[in-house]
Structures are given as structure tokens and as C-alpha cells.
């Protein structure tokens, strides 16, 4: 049938190996076309190669231009810089796509189906930060610089509009804080309005919303939104909020798309509090794998995986603890594989 597609596999830290194993079992049952190159990063990278982002891992992704990645641990405050942020910079992964869809009914919100498109390279994430010492306090003042460029705004806005149109979406919401950060996020709003007039008017609806109002509206009436596009930090926060609308981080996949590569992952982190206990929900990473199948033009397999996940959760009622169930990661995974094989 299809040819083999080389892809890099990073297990990651904490619950990473458990959810990657479960996801690989599902992909194997689907006969997904990936030929995996295993590589390490994060704490596992330090253990294996003395580096949270080993050269061999970068070389592998440069070859395959495609990766599935478990969560990587990043120390807060001091310590090494996030390998996730370094990967985004290295492969210019400018678009972070985070869809949220209700799969398990009966939560606080029904029938949610929206997508957050987050700018992934600029804004306050560029790491230009420093402290200023006053008297004997070396941390008396903390400073950060944010940078948003016209080119970067165009890139992500084009991606969001084109994605929305290609996927039959109705509206793109531009989220900003241009009333206060008039330059830093004003450039994003201004560029969106110019591009809409020049290129997208008549093809799709657009609105602009200030980020704080957007957070409130998402909780009061999330159904008014369709595709949300925003700058790096706002996108990080809003996509977790949106994940909460559909049952939490265990259900939230993400794709990092760039000119040079695409890396698929769960939105959540390494969950050290439950690592190694067989409690982790593998659905977020499985949904990321489904996005990866869409990306390599195997939407047929992506759809089969999504359908099998829906049925395992809702017909077989196999659910991990975060969804109120009692299934272990392995039990959920075996039920899902049975669905894939038998349906
Ligand atoms: P986290 O997402 O790891 O965990 C937050 C809470 O959600 C925890 O209670 C955890 O048990 C739960 N949770 C997360 N995923 C789950 C799953 N699949 N199933 C069931 N419960 C789940 O966030 P954190 O604790 O703030 O971060 C832990 C580490 O992960 C940090 O080092 C952080 O830097 C890193 N991190 C990595 C990524 C990534 O690699 N993309 C993303 C976010 C955080």
C-alpha cells in the first residue's frame, strides 16, 4: 500500500515512555507507515548523551523532518533551557496547532470543537531576560524583552487563515492585548486586519478580541469560537484553558509545524507525580499521532484512530483516572487496539 515514512520517536521523561508505548501499539494495529528512528531528549537525553537535546536527535529530525515526541522535563527557575523551545527554534516550528474537541460527553461543556493556533517562536518566549542588582539583592529587578515581527505575524496569520479555510471553519478570532502592549501585540492585530482586507475578506469571518475578555468568553460561551490565533504566551495560556473545557490535559494534542519539520506531541508535561504508576492517560499523545497521520496525507488512518479512541472511551467505557475511570494506561491501550483490529 503506502510507502514507509521515516520519523523520529522521542519517548521523553516521566509518563513519556508509558504513553509512547500505548501510542505505538495503536499505530502498529493501524499498520501506520512510520519507520521509527529512536532518539532521546530532556532528562533522558542528559542520561543517554549528557545533553538535554543531543546532536544525534537533531540530526535525526533534520533527516526525517517528522517527529512524535513524549513530554520533556524542564527545570523551573535555573537549570538548562527548555529542549521544547530549542526544538521549535532549531526547526523554525512557527505554528503550534492545538485542537480541542469534546470526546467524552457529560463534562462541564458539551460539543466543544475549536482550535487554538499559537505563534511559537516570538513574543515573550525569546528568552531575553535579565536581573538588575540593587545594593545586595542580585534579583532586585527582573526584566524581559518581547519581540514580534511583521514577518512572523504574517507567517502565523497566513497559517491560521489557510488552515481555517481548508478545514471548513467559519471564523478566525485574533486575540491580542493591543490596548496595553500597543506595539508588541498591536503589530499582531494590525497585521491581521491588513491581511484580512487584502486576502481573506469574503472567504471567512474574522473578529478581534482582547485576551482577558477572550478568557472570560471562553468559559461563559466557548461555542462562539472556532479558530483562535494569537501570540506565543497568550496561546500557551488559552490552549490550556481550552484543554480544560474538554476534560483536561489528558485529552489535548498539539502539532508544531514549520518550514523544516513537524513535531507532534501532547500539550501536557511529563506528569512526574504519576510517572511509572500506569495511571497516565495516553489519549492526548494518540490524538497527536492522528494529527501526524493527517500531516503525511493518511487522514484515513487518522480518522480510524480518532474513531477508535471515541469508541474505546464511550462504548467500552475504558477510561483512565483523570477521566473518572479506573483503567490503567495498559488496559486502555489494549481496549483501543482491540477496537482498531475488530471494528
Ligand atoms: P504536567 O502537564 O506534567 O502535569 C500537570 C497535572 O496534570 C499533573 O497533576 C499531572 O499528573 C496531570 N497530567 C498531565 N498529563 C496527564 C496525563 N496524560 N494523564 C493523566 N494526568 C496527566 O505539568 P507540570 O507538572 O507543570 O510539568 C511537569 C514537567 O513537564 C515540567 O518539567 C515541565 O517543564 C514539563 N512540560 C513539558 C511539556 C512538553 O514537553 N511539551 C509541556 C508542559 C510541561
Structural class: alpha/beta
User: Can you tell me the CATH class of the largest domain?
Assistant: Alpha Beta
The small-molecule ligands in this entry are: nicotinamide-adenine-dinucleotide
Domain unit count:
2
Compute the number of strand runs: 12
The topology string of helices and strands comes to: EHEHHEHEEEEHEHEHEHEEHHH
Question: Judging from the principal axes of the Cα atoms, what is the shape?
Answer: globular
Describe the structure.
This protein has helices at residues 16-30, 42-49, 55-64, 83-90, 150-166, 186-200, 211-220, 232-245, 283-295, 299-314, 329-342, and strands at residues 5-10, 34-39, 66-69, 95-101, 113-119, 123-134, 137-147, 171-176, 205-210, 227-230, 253-257, 262-266. With 343 residues, it is an alpha/beta fold. It has two domains: 1-91 and 260-343, Isopropylmalate Dehydrogenase, CATH 3.40.718.10; 103-250, 3-Layer(aba) Sandwich (Isopropylmalate Dehydrogenase), CATH 3.40.718.10. The strands form two sheets. The protein has a ten-stranded mixed sheet, with helices on both faces. It has a two-stranded antiparallel sheet with strand order 6-7. 47% of the residues are buried. The structure holds nicotinamide-adenine-dinucleotide. The site of nicotinamide-adenine-dinucleotide has 20 residues, from loops.
Q: How do the strands and helices of this protein lay out in sequence?
A:
Layout: E1 5-10, H1 16-30, E2 34-39, H2 42-49, H3 55-64, E3 66-69, H4 83-90, E4 95-101, E5 113-119, E6 123-134, E7 137-147, H5 150-166, E8 171-176, H6 186-200, E9 205-210, H7 211-220, E10 227-230, H8 232-245, E11 253-257, E12 262-266, H9 283-295, H10 299-314, H11 329-342
